[in-house]
Design a protein that fits this description.
With about 190 residues, this protein is an all-alpha fold. The protein folds into 2 domains: about 60 residues, Arc Repressor Mutant, subunit A (Orthogonal Bundle), CATH 1.10.10; about 130 residues, Tetracycline Repressor, domain 2. The radius of gyration is 20 Å and the shape is globular. The termini are far apart. Keywords: DNA-binding, Transcription, Transcription regulation. Pfam families: TetR_C_43 (PF21597), TetR_N (PF00440).
């Protein structure tokens, strides 16, 4: 084996290691953001991921890059869950309810994200549009399936529903007695209209 052959053989392993490190960083950052918010120290995220601080900065040059990557990753997971829940074979209303539960969990665990989005950092400018572009169509698909099965009233607007869920989740950070999940459950039950 020549030196070039051994370098080529080692290169895919590095890419796999880099992918594992990036995934470990995303998972560690997501967990840290839930418990401590988006301003958690980078060294804490690195420790959770089992990597050095330099590894974080190689993958995500700024904190904003890391925050955006974590939330894009989570938005993708939420978007992919909708069709999977519909395909499970249960009722479309059950799929919708379960997806809204996932969406609610996504929202109530985003400590500090709203402030970050309003910080003026250009890295965050496209995050909200990405969020809507990915999740509104999934919600619409679930609503349409539930309406077609005559499980909810027809004509529900996906954007309005997601906005309503979002508004119900706002108080979760500031009042320990406020149960956003319970409020969202009441909203989703009201879609049935029967």
């Amino acid at each position: 084996m020549t030196g070039i052959d051994s370098e080529e053989a080692a290169a895919p392993r590095k890419r796999a290691d880099a992918r594992r490190n990036a995934q470990a960083l995303l998972d560690a950052a997501a967990a840290a953001f839930v418990t401590a918010g988006v301003d958690v120290p980078v060294r804490e995220i690195a420790a959770r991921a089992g990597v050095g601080v330099g590894t974080i900065y190689r993958h995500f040059p700024t904190r904003a890059d890391l925050v955006v990557a974590v939330y894009r990753h989570q938005v993708e997971a939420c978007a992919e869950a909708g069709p999977a829940l519909l395909a499970d074979g249960g009722s479309p209303y059950t799929a919708l309810s379960r997806w809204i539960d996932l969406f609610t969990d996504f929202l109530v665990t985003k400590h500090g994200l709203a402030a970050a989005l309003q910080s003026g950092d250009p890295t965050f400018e496209t995050l909200h549009a990405y969020f809507l572009d990915r999740l509104v169509p999934v919600c619409a698909q679930l609503l349409d399936a539930a309406a077609a099965a005559d499980e909810i009233r027809p004509g529900m607007d996906a954007y309005e529903l997601l906005r309503g869920v979002g508004n119900l989740c706002i108080g979760a950070d500031s009042d320990p007695r406020y149960d956003a999940r319970r409020m969202v459950e009441l909203l989703i039950t009201g879609l049935r209209g029967r």
